[in-house]
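== Sequence, structure tokens ==
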Amino acid sequence: MNIKRLLDCPEFIAGDGTNLRELFHASKGDFKFRYSLARAVVKEGRVSKPHRLKTSEVYHIIEGRGRMHIGKESSKVGPGDSIYIPPHSIQYIENIGHGDLVFLCIVDPAWRAEDEEMV
């Protein structure tokens, strides 16, 4: 059984400026899946940097309020919302609430630095 405890996963600042803790990554264990899973935090009043991935991504909002931007579209998001981000889409999220905006990021296939571009 493979259980990851959030606080045992090192926190770091991702390229888009979010506080990230990587929980699972397909290439970092004996897993039978191809995705990566991370927990992200955007602090109150902050915005992630616009970027795009060559791969698809899903955000699942756990707490807080945000505005998700994908291409020329934007929408308010909150707890329980899941957002599909198509490959090659310029994306960023802003925290428009009080407190942290916390969400899960699922990247499929698993995130790789060479698949991400800051714009």
Observations:
- The radius of gyration is 14 Å.
- The mean pLDDT is 97.
- The first strand starts at residue 11 and ends at 13.
